Amino acid sequence: MHTVEQTVPATFQVGVFALIRHRGAYLIVRPHQPLLPGGDQGLPGLLLGLSSGQNLVEMNLRRVIREQVKLVVSDLKLIGSHASRGPQDSGADARLNMIFGTEYSAGILAPNADLITAADWIPQRELLETGAYPEWLAAAVREFETTQGVAAPDEPAQPRLRFGRRR
Q1: Cβ–Cβ < 8 Å for 61, 90
Q2: Alpha-carbon distance 117 to 132, whole Å?
Q3: CA–CA separation, 80 and 141 (whole Å)
């Protein structure tokens, strides 16, 4: 039996992202290099290598949230995932994106300009408007609210940035 050796190994990446809720709004960021499909808007997060470690995903996601937006979050719960093709320049054929839901705990939103071009709290109702944001994001919000309950905002959040809005 003759087998053909693969000259280029199949590669993949795992993306982990946090959907952070605070007073009925969700934190949306605009990274320099988009890591999630669907446009410039995204969530705080990172792409992981395949090294195994103790609680590698949660530890790295918490670290990146602090580095990207200077916030501390509560327990991370996996609420969604999706597969996508890796960008041409990533060296990966495919990517698995994992989205964790969590609640804001502490900190003042301060995007790190070296990593994020913008960040803002976007009201839940706006994120769920058909066509306003990518479907993976709306699905993550719906799943988080189904499993964790809907948070009543203390005051309605007024978005300052217009991520992906079509008017």
Answers
A1: no
A2: 20
A3: 9
Written as six digits, the tokens of 50 are 């395949």
Q: How much is the pTM?
A: 0.68
Q: What is the pLDDT of residues 82-129, one digit of tens each?
A: 888 766 666 667 778 889 999 999 999 999 999 999 999 999 999 999
Distance between CA atoms of residues 26 and 20, nearest Å? 6
Q: Which two tokens stand for residue 124?
A: 């839940």
Alpha-carbon torsion (148, 149, 155, 160), positive or negative = positive
DSSP one-letter string for 28-97 = EEEESS--SSSSS-B-SEEEE-S---TTHHHHHHHHHHHHHH-EEE---EEEEEEEEEPPGGGS-SEEEE
In this structure, the number of other CB atoms found within 10 A of the CB of residue 124 comes to: 19
Both tokens of residue 128?
């769920």
E strand or H helix at 117: strand 116-123
Contact (CB, 8 A) for 42 and 36: yes
3-state secondary structure of 20: strand
